[in-house]
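seq:
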Amino acid sequence: MKKPVVLLIMDGIGLAADTPSNAVAKARTPNFDYLYANHPWIQIKAHGTAVGLPSDDDMGNSEVGHNALGCGQIYAQGAKLVNESIETGRMFTSNTWRNMIENCLKNNSTLHFIGLLSDGNVHSNIDHLIAMIGQAKTEGLAKVRIHVLLDGRDVPAQSAHIYIEKLEQAMADLNDAVFCAKIASGGGRQIITMDRYGANWPTVKAGWDTHVHGVGQQFAAAIDAVTAARGTKPNIVDQDLPAFVIAQDGQPVGKIKDGDSVVLFNFRGDRAIQLSQAFDLPDFDKFDRGHAPKVFYTGMLQYDGDLALPKNFLVSPPNITNTLTELLVAANVPQYAVSETQKYGHVTYFWNGNKTEKFCETLETYQEIISDVVPFEQRPWMKAAETTDHIIDAIKSKKYGFIRANFPNGDMVGHTGNFAAAEIAVATVDLCLGRLLAAAEEHGATLIITADHGNADEMFEETKAGQSPKTAHTLNPVPFIIYDTDQTFALKDGAYGLANVAATIAVLLGVTPNPMWEKSMI
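struct:
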């Protein structure tokens, strides 16, 4: 094996023109500047068809980005899988859909949908929800309730009303004397329900209490809840909107009860696993659920194949095989993966093709650094220094042939819409990069620096009303940089994406890439 390779994923740090909204360009980044001026690098694609999404209008995300980085291939992902399942009708003939519908018909019970009300195509798509509501009516159900999570992160920051109005209109077109669909509860995705990696279980409990038990401030309509929140905080981003419950005569219109069916219509796994555990696991103990109703629960996809979670799912996820980790295990290359909690699953679970378990216990070492539970704009440096400490220790140890790490700062802080904090986040990553360049030179390692998608490179957009925070990922390319003080690598001409990284790493390690992968860039 050649010298060790260290892959640094600078999450959310994309390449864009130097505009006033570009916190990456405005941040102090002497180490990035040095690399761009003195070492080989190119731009690579991190969105759309390059990562298995339906079109190049679809922004990339950390899930599909790490899948592509880790497997060297392009698989149909998320929205594309669900689109195909609905368009062909496969979803509605699946055993899970049939059992879910029959459960409601048998019990004369309610079908509930929980998920992100958005068309961002990162976690969900409102069109999938509307299609399923329509099919439920076709199949004779009488009562549907929707528990909406408001986005403002993968879509414009204050766009909740657009999606609420679209859903309300679709339901009004369907509702009649024998069918009734209503919004039952909701709130911002950052406030309720959509935690990930066990970082903040109280968020999930807040969602459980809102959706299941109807606990929360009551409103006659979802748009009233949004209007009330903006009346208090005009600039509040949709993801931070407080929880609400829709009620009539003081009674919630959509508590989840014994005998009901529940669909989590998000297709992305990381922020769906914890709620699925609360519904699916009989020995669940992360918070007090109160009365946990006996329901037929299903996810849009199976979010964790190793854990078989949830047991029921409507669309099969891509069966990702022949990953980089498998190739390196076969070549007896020891590997080390590290990040803080917010992106730990991305360098482990997503990297290994949506698999929780290791391919080899002796050759794979995982290190999680526990994230602080604090708003990211208040601590934009996050755990970058601690992550860097662990990477340097891994390099010094000489134990590992391949080290991979994720710095979440550009993405997690970018999602807040706070430009000043994003500048600090990017500068923090650059500061840590300087330490890693020195460690690589001293101890003989090759560094690869890239990102899984952009975010901090576009922090706001101009609207008729003025500047509006942009909290979503971007469509911009990301850098691919090779740093090695012993030799210079020539990057081949061509159009590349994240899936080309795996073969490039293999070549650097002296391992023959899997022939089914996207080609190496060197």
